[in-house]
Amino acid sequence: MEPFIAQIVMFGGNFAPRGWAFCDGQLLPISSNSALFSILGTTYGGDGRTTFALPDLRGRVPLGPRTGAGLSTYREGQRSGEERHVLNVTEMPNHNHIASGEVKVNSADATKAVASTGSSIATPGAPAGRGISQTYGFNDATPDVALNAASNSVTIGNNGGNQAHNNMQPYLAVNYIIALQGVFPSRS
């Protein structure tokens, strides 16, 4: 069966058969490919006076250009997408996490004017040097007072280090070829 001129098919060989060409974006002269040019025009490139381009499907997945309910609009010859992508801040969703905790102290230490060493509560006083020298940690006393639990949002900083991530779907590399000769397709 003779192909339609401009028909694109997948081909498992590593060559383009006679009357076909790889869909690799090459420029062809209009003068010797007028039938093909009348179908493709400059949709895929070329100056439209002396040259026109074949579709370039190297590293690309073909996509049907038309509109439909719930579909994005694509026009013939439109190219988009990338194999690897670096996310920027505007592409990352904002998010936060709730941080909560509970502190229990011994009530015996809570009534002291000045907490003793090893107390479950902080010692009042002015800081000295680079730290708060009169603040103590928790002691071994059994806690008998629970402070009200508190929670707050914690904002998580963006991460990723400007590293690209792979954006490829699973693939198998196969040549796409386009018919340079054949039956001129009639419009319905």
From TrEMBL:
This is Tail fiber protein. Gene3D superfamilies: Phage tail collar domain. It comes from Lacinutrix neustonica. InterPro entries: Phage_tail_collar_dom, Phage_tail_collar_dom_sf. SUPFAM superfamilies: Receptor-binding domain of short tail fibre protein gp12. Residues 7-62 form the Phage tail collar domain.
